[in-house]
């Protein structure tokens, strides 16, 4: 568990989180699928349980993790490391948040915690965040945190039968330390 502040904590995803996460997906399906394919595959609580099981597999193989975002005691979304490339000391953060919880700085604070964990505890040399070019809300998070926009990815991604462009944001430990030292508050 990562306690971020009095309102926000990140908890390792477990079976009992499947139902509240599924309820968010059900309620906000149209919103979430605007930039993601995965909501189409989460049609039942059992489908969400498969996400929990995959997270367990990622942890057991050292290839990432998934955390539930709890805001004021309520499950509101998910964040985690999509993969860990141990040989290259590189990882990528993936995240989503229920529509009603946008605009409270929740995801920015969660990304700070996960990025710091990746650098300070996992000793990663690069943390990436990939965003659809048109997803300005998602892109605002790495931009706000000082991630470097490395440019468009060379291959477009399929999203609901069409190709979209994505950009890759990158952070290094040195840059993170310069931008997020104890005297610097976000």
Question: How would you spell out the order of helices and strands?
Answer: EEHHEEEHEHEEEEH
Taking all residues together, what is the mean pLDDT? Answer: 94
Classification by helices and strands? alpha+beta
Strand elements, count: 10
**How large, in whole angstroms, is the Cα Rg?**
16 Å
Strand content: 25-35%
Q: Percent helix among the residues?
A: 25-40%
Q: Please describe the biggest sheet, giving its number of strands, its sense, and whether it closes into a barrel.
A: 8 strands, mixed
State the end-to-end distance.
22 Å
Number of helices, counting only DSSP H or I runs of 4 residues or more: 5
Strand order of the largest sheet: 1-2-3-4-5-6-10-7
Which geometry do the CA atoms define? globular
Can you tell me the residue ranges where pLDDT is under 50 for at least 5 consecutive residues? none
Q: How would you characterize the overall build of this protein?
A:
- The protein is an alpha+beta fold.
- Helices cover 34% and strands 31% of the residues.
- It contains 5 helices and 10 strands; from the N terminus they run ββααβββαβαββββα.
- The strands form 2 sheets. Strands 1-2-3-4-5-6-10-7 form an 8-stranded mixed sheet, sandwiched between helices. A two-stranded antiparallel sheet has the order 8-9.
- Helix 1 packs across helix 2.
- The longest helix is centred in the first third of the chain and has 16 residues.
- The model has no long low-confidence stretch (mean pLDDT 94).
